[in-house]
Specification:
344 residues, five-stranded mixed beta sheet, four-stranded mixed beta sheet, 10 helices, 13 strands, binds coenzyme A
């Protein structure tokens, strides 16, 4: 027998579930009419092509941290826990413009999460699902009792208002969830992945160092500095989302041992209403299953879109606590994450 001492095993909760969800929507509403002052388009085109009627854009006070604290406060209240019991703060975002430190540490401190480990992840519109997968593992692995997962974006900071193909799409906001121990399974297998061969189909126009190099050029040769923005090949993303993501959603259902007709809600990333409708068809989702259509008033808020839509469905009574929901996020990377979860 070896004399090597054995590490004490770590035991976590048998199962995990979402205990609370909360959202924050910025005060300022940007209706399509305002977008039409930036680009040559029409309210009808935007509504029929994307499903969006209006979006919220954050003001100077509605920072990534502020929106996160507001959303998380609601999730914590719904979970009914002391923030000191949160043993992990995961912030999914692509629009926190300061490279370091992670915005998660400030948020954890402001919420009273003690010395909880806090970090940011960059998984675009799959960010909430990625965070949920990590939180589920932390809780069941015994490395945290409760984990706070936040999806937050200020995509208005990265929107080129002169770009016809993206100016109408993006919105700002924050959504948060508390994941913690459960007596019964509350988070199914997270079916997640990436496809770096398509890294360029949605991306920032230029890296920050490139932008700053241009600023030097402004001082010298006079080349104009352009602020980095999000660009996407709309049709490529659309086709990928419609064909590939319905398969991923089905895998999440199969892995959870749930059929579409057993769902109490379908909460896909709010990317485009036509993508949602195509997925409903591909999944043969019965008309009786309520579907999140938050995009109409919120636009595409990337990592924040699923928890924001989840909160709205619960608040409006469209979905009920204890119902099973299929969630799926997908976006820049390309990345995706889907799972069946029990609603808090
Ligand atoms: C962005 C999107 C709505 C554009 O719709 P589309 O049908 O692909 O549009 P296209 O770029 O092919 O352009 C079609 C026509 O509309 C026109 N058009 C493009 N943008 C327009 C706008 N904002 N307003 C009015 N017309 C517009 C184009 O000029 C083109 O006209 P033409 O046929 O006369 O040449 C669509 O591609 C989409 O939703 N993609 C997925 C995006 C998404 O969900 N991203 C998030 C993933 S996280």
């Amino acid at each position: 027998m070896s004399n090597t001492p054995q590490i004490r095993p770590v035991t976590g909760a048998r199962y995990a579930r979402i205990h609370g969800v909360g959202g924050y929507r910025p005060v300022r509403v940007i209706p399509n009419a305002e977008v039409l002052t930036w680009i040559d388009s029409s309210d009808e085109w935007i509504r029929t092509r994307s499903g969006i009627a209006e979006r919220r854009w954050a003001g100077p006070e509605e920072s990534v941290a502020e929106m996160s604290v507001q959303a998380a406060g609601k999730a914590i209240a719904q979970a009914g826990i002391d923030p000191a019991r949160i043993g992990g703060v995961i912030v999914a975002t692509v629009s926190h413009l300061k490279q370091t430190p992670a915005i998660a540490t400030e948020i954890a401190e402001r919420l009273g999460c003690g010395t909880a480990p806090a970090f940011d992840i960059s998984a675009a519109c799959a960010g909430f699902g990625y965070g949920l997968g990590l939180a589920d593992g932390l809780v069941r692995g015994g490395n945290a009792e409760y984990v706070l997962v936040i999806g937050v974006e200020r995509l208005s900071d990265l929107t080129d208002t002169s770009d016809r193909s993206t100016a109408f799409i993006f919105g700002d906001g924050a959504g948060a969830a508390i994941v913690g121990p459960s007596d019964t399974p509350g988070i199914g297998k997270v079916v997640w992945g990436s496809d770096g061969s398509q890294k360029d189909v949605i991306s920032q126009t230029q890296a920050w160092d490139t932008a700053f190099a241009k600023e030097d050029a402004v001082n010298g040769a006079g080349e104009r500095l352009t602020w980095p923005a999000l660009r996407m090949e709309g049709q490529t993303v659309f086709r990928w989302a419609v064909w590939e993501m319905a398969k991923v959603a089905q895998q999440a259902l199969d892995a959870a041992g749930i059929t579409a007709d057993q769902l109490g809600a379908f909460i896909p990333h709010q990317a485009n209403m036509r993508i949602t409708d195509a997925m409903i068809k591909a999944l043969k989702l019965p008309a009786s299953v309520p579907v999140a259509r938050d995009i109409t008033e919120t636009g595409n808020t990337s990592a924040a879109s699923i928890p924001l839509a989840m909160e709205r469905m619960l608040e409006s009574g469209e979905a009920r606590s204890g119902d099973l929901a299929l969630i799926i996020g997908f976006g820049a990377g390309l990345v995706y994450a889907a799972a069946v979860v029990t609603l808090p």
